[in-house]
Structures are given as C-alpha cells and as structure tokens.
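A reminder before we start the practical. When you read a complex entry, don't treat the lines as separate problems. The point of joint prediction is that each chain is placed relative to the others, so the output describes one connected object in space. Small molecules and nucleic acid strands, if listed, are placed in the same frame. In the example below there are three entries. Take a minute to note the order of the lines before looking further.
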Amino acid sequence: MTTDMISTKAKIGRNVTLGAHVRIHDNVEIGDDTVIGDFCVIGHPAGGEYQGQPLQIGPRSVIRSHSILYEGSSFGADLRVGHTSLIREGVKAGVNLQIGSFNDLEGDTVIGDWVRFHSNVHVGRGAVIGDLVWIFPYVVLTNDPIPPSGLKEGVTLGAGSAVCTSAVVLPGTVVGRGAFIAAMTRARGNIPGGALVVGGEGHIVGTIRKLRHKESGKQHPWMTHFADYYPAEAQSAITALHQAVESDVELLERELAAKKASS
Amino acid sequence: MTTDMISTKAKIGRNVTLGAHVRIHDNVEIGDDTVIGDFCVIGHPAGGEYQGQPLQIGPRSVIRSHSILYEGSSFGADLRVGHTSLIREGVKAGVNLQIGSFNDLEGDTVIGDWVRFHSNVHVGRGAVIGDLVWIFPYVVLTNDPIPPSGLKEGVTLGAGSAVCTSAVVLPGTVVGRGAFIAAMTRARGNIPGGALVVGGEGHIVGTIRKLRHKESGKQHPWMTHFADYYPAEAQSAITALHQAVESDVELLERELAAKKASS
Amino acid sequence: MTTDMISTKAKIGRNVTLGAHVRIHDNVEIGDDTVIGDFCVIGHPAGGEYQGQPLQIGPRSVIRSHSILYEGSSFGADLRVGHTSLIREGVKAGVNLQIGSFNDLEGDTVIGDWVRFHSNVHVGRGAVIGDLVWIFPYVVLTNDPIPPSGLKEGVTLGAGSAVCTSAVVLPGTVVGRGAFIAAMTRARGNIPGGALVVGGEGHIVGTIRKLRHKESGKQHPWMTHFADYYPAEAQSAITALHQAVESDVELLERELAAKKASS
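Here is the predicted structure of the whole assembly.
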C-alpha cells in the first residue's frame, strides 16, 4: 500500500522526513529538510483554476500530523503548520508562516512574511494579510457581505496588526498597520493604523498605546517587546514597521484628541 | 491490514471510490458513484438507541479526508462533507446536504433538503433544520437551557434562514422562515419569518430587506440573487419559499411600523 | 508497516484495544482496559522541558479516532477523549476527565477530577481547572494579556464552575466556585463564587440562583439536579462542593443587595 501513497511525480527534496501513512499527490514540490507528520494529505487535488497547479513548500518546513494541503498554493521557507489544519488552493505565502492546529484557510489568500496564526483561525477567500500579522484562536475573516450572495469582499490586514481571540472581521474590512482588534470584537470598515478596536460594534476606543501591562511595563506597539520572537532576517523589517506604526499612532492620537475637543 | 479496514458486511454501491486507509464498519450502505477520502471512518459504532442501525449515504456523494460518520444516520443523494468533519448518530438529512470542514454534528438532528453548512458548524442534539438553510463558520446551535442540566431543548431553523459567523443560537430558539441571524449574534426566543436579528441581546432590528448590497444591488431575500447556486430540482422549492418569505417580510414590516408608531 | 507504528518501548497494559493505524511513540504508559481509536497519535514527541517525559493514561480510558496526545502529560483513570482532539505536553489531569471532539489543550494545565469539556474547547497554557468544572463549545481560555507579548497569565476556574458556549475568558481571570459564565460572555477579573456573568463586558448580573428552568423546576447550583450524571466516587465531593457554593451564593446575594441598597 505504501507505494501508492507517495506519487512518483512529486518532487521531494533532500533529507525530507515523512511520518506514517503520509499521502503525497502528483503536483507537489517539497523543499529540503522538511518534516511531514503522520496521516497528512499533501497536494490534494483542487478544482477550478488551480487544478493541476503545484503545491510548493519551502525548505526546512514542518507540517504536523493529520494536516491537509491542496495543490495550487505556495509557501516560502520555514513554514510551520500545526496538527489537523486545512489549507486550500490559491494561497501564496511568504517566508516563515507559522500556523497552529485546526486552522482552516479557504484559499485565494495572499500572506506576507513572518505571519503567525494561533489555533482555529478561519481565513475566508480573498483575504490579503501583510507581514508580521498575528491572528488568535477562533478568529474568522469573512468575505460575503450579505450571505449567501456569491459576492466576495475579502479582508485586508495591514502589516503588524493583531486580531484577537474570537473576533470576527466583517467582509471588506481594511485593518491598518499595527492595529489591534480586541477579543470578541466585530471589526468593520476602514480601521486606521495603530487603532485599538473593541466590542460588538467595532468602535475605535483609542490607540494601541492603551495596551500596557503594568507589572512588566510592556506596551504596544509590540515591536518594542516581542521582536526577539522572530528570526534575525525579520529584524530590519520589524524596525521599519515599528517606525511606521508609531507614526500612525501619533497621527491617530491627534485625530482622536481633536475629535474629542470638538465634541 | 487492508482487508480488515473494509467490513464485508457493508453494502457498497457501484463505482464507489475509496481513498487510502478508509475504515468502513458493518452497518454501512453507500450509494453508487460515491467518493470517500483518505483516513475516513465510515459507520463508527454508536451507543444507545442507534446501536446497530445503518448509516445510509445516498448516491453521488463526496466525503473528504479524515471525516467520521457514525452508524444510525441517513443522508439523501449528493451529500457533500468536507475534511475532518464529525457526524454522529441519529441525523436524518434530505438530499444534497453540503457541509464544510471541521463540522461537528452531535446527532439526533433532522435536516431538510439542499442545506448548506460552511466550516466549523456545531449542531447540538435535537435541532430541526428546514430546507435551504445556511449556517456559517463557528455557529453553535445549543440545546441545554441551564447547563449542565441534562435537559434538551433543540433549536429550530425555518426554511431558508441564515445563521451567520460565530452566532450562538440559544436553546429552544425557533427561527422563522428566511430570517437572518447576523454575525456574532446571540439569538433566542421566537424569531418571526423574515426578521433581521443582530447583537448580543438578539434584538430584531428590522426585516431582511435591510440586507442590501449597494454596489451590486443584491438584496435579501436571497432567493432573488442566489437561486442559481442550487440544482435544478431545488428551483420550484426556492420559488415557493421566496413567496412565503416575502409574505412574512410584509407582515413583519407592518408589525414593526405599527409598534414604532405606538411607541 | 504495523510494527513500526507501535514503539516497543511503550508500556501498554492488559486488554488494551487499538484501532487501525494507531501510532504509539516511546514514552507512553497506557492503563489496562483502554481503547484507542483509528489514526490516533499517542505520545507525540514534545519539545522543551517535557521532552522525553512519559505520557500516562489511566486505566479504562477511551480515546476516539484521529486524536493526538503528546508525551509529558498524565491522566487519571477513566479518561474520555472524543474524535480529532489535540492534547499537548504538560497537562496533569485527575480522574475521569471527559473531553469532546476537536478540543485543543495547549499544555501546561492542571485539571482536577471529573471535569467535562464539550467539543471545540481551547485551553491556553497556564490554566488551572478545578474539580467538576464544565466547559462548553468554542470557549477559549486565553493567557496573553497584551498579545503578542510572550507574557502568560493563565486562567483559573474554580470547582464546579461552568463556562458556556463561545465565551472568552481573558488572561489572568479567576472564576470562583460554582460561578456561571453565560454564552458569548467575555469574562475577566476576579469573579466571586456563585456569580452569574453575562455579556461582552463581563458584568456580574446576579447569582446562579437566577438560572432556573420554569418547566422542570431545575435550578442552579447544578449539584441539585445533575449529580446523577457523575460516578459514585464523585458524590461526596459533589455534596461538599454544593454546600460551599450555597455559602458563596448566600454571601454574594447579600453583597449585591447591599450594593443595590447603597446606590
């Protein structure tokens, strides 16, 4: 049975480790030094425009057990995928994407470099996700403005933004650089860079400077206290992003102060 | 090992395609031209009243990898099940049920024809789901009024209703025909046909005519703009449902106007 | 292939039943009379401090198909794990833990006796969960106070507390004995024993005595009407907990009445 499981058409790099009962389909290109866990399905056939397109997995990647990746997607080096995640066709991701377990990426999504998804993140088709974004458990990026409609208005998440646990990002929402969507928030519309958004109505309640942890002194933007969690290659991008977000925060602080003064 | 995996007692139709390492238990009846993906468990033994009852899967069905279906359930023709979904015992579904990935159907549920669940839908026991219903990701249909209590008050969803992302439908809720439960809403009580329900308090904020997409002109009821997504056999039911929902909407518009006038 | 799947270093008790294609790693100790379903991964290697530590599963346990348990965790007798659940390293659980399907336990968690998780429960690292707790679908116990920060402030759930569907428990929250977190609530801070917490702001709206089901007369604390669902060994603990929670409820009722009178 084992011979059937690994397509002879797949291009498998050097020093690739496959777990037990891994299924590898035809249009697969796996980079060197990659590890794939038990019971994974790699290169699952896709329909439509991505049919027969390659699944490209960069070198030094780790994909944990029971995960399913479709053909027609590509990932840079150092991909990490947790257990039991599903990634459909049409995802184009940069380097060092790390997604947790039980993720559900519907496909047709552009993802930057050094992006992090925790467990159970749902990404609807049409999303555009910048560098260094964080998404936490049970977040849904939606795309249908009046479901069911067949319309697709994907979500855009600016570089360095964070979407927290159980938040829903409504269709067509544009989240600015470094913005923070709090837990159980329903985010919508155009959210300026550096904004702090909270609650079912998705109100902007201030800037991310409000996010300060008294005991440790750590404060957003997170680039001041969390940069060490990223690889060396990411550091200059983090520094540049930090400056841009600080500038956005300054601007928004002034706008909010002016709005308050005039009301 | 392969011979152990497929019970000789299972009734498997013509032209059925099984993926790698599919497990098929005894009380299974699979219709012709069905496809079952890798690592599925089909006909998992059930306890209680459904023990030893058949799992019936209609012809032309597709069940994707890593999904688990228990014995004691039945599905009409053209079933679609995504990856890594779990369907327990006691589900009775009509034709062309389409459910996505990571669904969790607890069992004891009646489901009409042409019903659509997106990913990660959780259906608690005792639910009754009408024809042409739509449920979106991370929705939970609950059933215990004061958990944990052992009481079961299933949810009823009227034909053509839509329950949007991350909504929770509280125990015993009855959702009328064509009603729309918005994202992250906590729905409760008796919701009239054609109602639009929004927010953590589950308020009725109007009728579904409010759901209009300016750019495209598409507007609810969805039967005007989304009927093409269903098979030919569904069209007369959609037309009849459309008329019924329009009538419900008219009635509710008048009621809400009268209530507003008197307040 | 089968021989590779089961490590000869694993300690497997008497009368243990393994499903098809179960993978068992080295540092595994499985108690007698345990059942493990198809496609499970048992004793998955962990990193960090738990690397090489045993996974201990008590006797008479049942773990359903497609589930994954890491090394470095221990579970008392009569463990139940549903399908497609993930339990990482560093979980120390008492007897008769029952978790449903699609659970995601991140690790580093202490769990008491007779605890129940429904489907799709997400437990972040650092949680401390008392005896007889209930958690319902799509609940997230978080741990990062200003994500992403690398800080970890785990959640504490007191004995007999219940966290309902789609609630989020914010980092560092301490939930008192027998408290009840309603569906879609965002719980935070120090929640007194016997409190009823509702809504996105996590307000205490009264005590759990408000949770009364008219038709059946069942009322919280649940120990009055739900004790029969637990095994005989749990009954004296339930009785003692009931008395403690009643005392907390009395105290809180008086506090809330005093606060109301003074406002």
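Discuss with your neighbour: The first helix of chain B runs from residue 2 to 5. What might explain this?
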